[in-house]
Amino acid sequence: MTEEKSASGWNYQPSEPIKYNPLFDLPPKLGSICGWMITRWVSVSRFVLFLIAAVILTLHFTPSLSLIEDSNYDWIAYLFARNTALLFIVAGTLHLYLHVLKVQGDEYKFLKREMAKNSKKFKFNSQVYDNVFWSVFSGVTVWTFYEAIYWNGVANGFVETITFQSNPIQFFLWIFCLPLIRGTHFYFIHRLLHIPFLYKHVHSTHHRNVNTGPWSGISMHPVENIIYQSSPLIHLFIPTDPIIFTLHLIVVTLNPAFTHSGFEQIKSKKTKILDSADFHHQLHHRYFDCNYGNMDVPLDIWFGTHHDGSEKATKQMRLRIKGVASN
Description:
Elements: H1 30-42, H2 46-60, H3 65-70, H4 74-100, H5 127-155, H6 168-193, H7 196-207, H8 222-228, H9 242-253, H10 255-259, E1 265-268, E2 271-275, H11 279-287, H12 299-302, H13 311-326
Antiparallel strand pairs: 1-2
């Protein structure tokens, strides 16, 4: 990757077109598939860190089933406080590192401009404060609600679970399939949210963030968070290890702090720490009607909504938007 200041207005954009998971290429190329999985999901990546966090949270920071079964729901308040703290640790640290202290300056930052201040478009006239408000009031509330439904069901025998010890093969199959399930769900609910009525009254709250930051991730209208965070509900119906459920929740709640950070990579001096935001999704926030999914499932290619980040694709996009606007 090289840093380029292109005529399209990006401060940084990848030097190569966006590429998707080779799992769906024909004929299959095992080497490419293994390389993708290792690089994106198995190496020292966010996914591995999230898996470790899921183990710790499930085993040490989740109320016991006996407490959930017998208590007067004080445990839900605990979950809300815990989840709020987790969001502040992840999104707050990223915001401090990248946007306040500017440890890596503008290196790998997609857009040059700063987060909006003194803007009536946002609550409190501040993009960051607006994002924090919606992330906690809407995002953490829905996150905690879904988590409470799951754990209440487990404690009272309505939701079946298995353990890694009893079925390690299924555990690892979920690890493999989770990005595919997440990517498919995200594409179709995202297309739903762009229906004019839902976009105007619901999704526009999130899309005010053209120049995104870590707090933009789950800064959404409550209705959008209810729809967006619904994919972990699959674990209510298919028995899985509770660690997988927690991991799934983390992927839809904490991972967006990275994918909306505004920086493709997080660095310390010359050393890369982690991949962060995807240019694929940054393009969606800029152009609105492309790249509805993610790169794990090439649904955008299959349904004709793909933008690969190239100047050619940008020109085609502008011509299409101009054509729609003129009709």
